UniProtKB/TrEMBL annotation:
<dbReference type="InterPro" id="IPR052036">
    <property type="entry name" value="Hydrolase/PRTase-associated"/>
</dbReference>
<dbReference type="Pfam" id="PF05139">
    <property type="entry name" value="Erythro_esteras"/>
</dbReference>
<dbReference type="InterPro" id="IPR014622">
    <property type="entry name" value="UCP036794_erythomycin"/>
</dbReference>
<dbReference type="InterPro" id="IPR007815">
    <property type="entry name" value="Emycin_Estase"/>
</dbReference>
<protein>
    <submittedName>
        <fullName>Erythromycin esterase family protein</fullName>
    </submittedName>
</protein>
């Protein structure tokens, strides 16, 4: 019989104490997930995020979501009073597919907690909630134009020109990418001009309060999103790993900007898929010259400043779509195949959840080679899982720790679990 991996129990939030100890003084904690639609990934990340904020003074959560939508949540949770009604209503801002990623009861519970925490803190010390992603080209352009018109400054001309450049393509950035693939003209210069104008403006102004500084920061960030989204959609049409790299490099640039906004001693919690969080150099992504935020954070901030925690499960259920833009569905997640990372842990633990630390499993001969590690996206077809949902990984190097949840269930999207029905029981383990 094979020697078991060293593991630690994972039953309640109190069992996260070894993770907090291992994190130590790290400045950035990356929390992964093996799917965008699994209840337990959200609740365990919430439980750990609460402890990091309350016990270690972390300043903000940044997620694999769009900047404009997340910034609306950020502004709401920093208000002295509740101006948004209910968290479920506030999360209606996430109205673009896949809506369930952030429009769910699990995130609603986190939003309520963050607002309650912030009401007890001075304005300058309130915990933020931000988006790292690059998809929101049109929404970000609209936000920049609105900000420039409100301020009545020199960025108005550049913002209007950029808006007009994209206007013929409606609200579909992919239509823009398809159009410019066949002509020489694009909108690259226009969005770059907006970003330059906002940066010149920021260099000449002093903002008296954090909300003012954040609003200016958000406008510049929206301009940056527009610049990188324009690059992303053109690269996506060409295929290969270029668009992936544009996206994760944007995530890392956004993280660095947020750390700068919050000061030299600020600390960040990142929520993103394992494929972004786990260091790409220790997966087959390396062969395609693809990078991710997990790799870039280690390289740019230093290994000691970054702690990554991957998540995975053996079987259960998930929320996903059968194709891009398809209606969300609750789908079964079949038992992981033999010789996968998840099957190895299931066989050892017999259905129990556990924490594993890379420092304790590094050197195990079974992990000296790459093993398959499940990855489910927003598009999923369970019957074909074994043909493309496993990423060959050197687990002890890809993560600093791993949370194994043997049997999981689907997320609770607001679109299915309506607000009038009230929130489901999210924490049966007594969070």
């Amino acid at each position: 019989m094979a020697t078991p991996f060293p593991t630690h129990p994972l039953r309640t939030a109190a069992d996260l104490a070894p993770v907090l100890a291992a994190i130590g003084d790290a400045r950035v904690v990356l929390l992964g997930e093996a799917s965008h639609g699994t209840h337990e990934y959200y609740t365990w990340r919430t439980a750990l995020s609460k402890r990091l904020i309350a016990e270690k003074g972390f300043d903000f959560i940044a997620v694999e979501g769009d900047w404009p939508d997340c910034f609306e949540v950020n502004a709401a949770i920093k208000q002295d009073t509740n101006t948004y009604g209910t968290a479920a209503r506030l999360l209606g801002t996430f109205n673009r597919w896949p809506t369930w990623m952030w429009g769910n009861w699990e995130i609603a519970a986190l939003v309520e907690w963050l607002h309650h925490q912030n009401q007890r803190r001075p304005a300058a010390g309130r915990v933020g909630f931000y988006g790292l992603d690059v998809y929101s080209l049109w929404e970000s352009l609209q936000a920049v134009l609105q900000y420039a018109e409100q301020q009545g400054d020199g960025a108005i001309t550049a913002a209007r020109q950029a808006f007009r450049c994209f206007e013929p393509y409606g609200h579909d950035p992919q239509e823009y990418a398809r159009a410019v693939a066949f002509i020489s003209e694009d909108c690259q210069d226009e969005v770059a001009a907006v970003l330059r104008a906002l940066r010149r403006q920021a260099a000449t102004r002093t903002y008296a309060t954090l909300p003012e500084r954040e609003q200016a920061f958000a406008a510049e960030q929206n301009a940056l999103v527009a610049v990188n989204a324009e690059r992303y959609y053109k690269a996506m049409l060409r295929g290969g790993g270029a668009s992936w790299n544009v996206r994760d490099e944007h995530m890392m640039e956004t993280l660095n900007r947020l750390l700068g906004l919050h000061g030299p001693h600020s600390k960040a919690i990142i929520w993103a898929h394992n494929t972004h969080v786990g260091d790409a150099r220790y997966t087959d992504m390396r062969r395609e010259d693809m990078v991710n935020i997990g790799q870039l954070a280690r390289e740019q901030l230093g290994r000691a400043q970054v702690f990554s925690l991957g998540f995975g499960s053996y079987q259960g259920g998930v929320v996903a779509g059968k194709e891009w833009g398809a209606p969300l569905e609750k789908m079964p997640v079949p038992a992981a195949p033999r010789d996968s990372w998840e099957a190895m842990l299931h066989a050892q633990l017999g259905g129990e959840n556990a924490l594993l630390f890379s420092s304790e499993i590094r050197g195990d001969a079974r992990l000296a080679r790459a093993v398959g590690h499940r990855a489910i996206g927003v598009v999923y077809r369970p019957q074909f899982e074994h043909f493309g949902n496993y990423v060959p990984s050197l687990i002890p190097d890809r993560y600093d720790a791993f949370a194994f949840l043997d049997h999981t269930k689907p997320l609770h999207p607001l679109a299915i679990h309506a607000e009038e029905n009230g929130p489901p029981d999210l924490y049966p383990w007594g969070e």
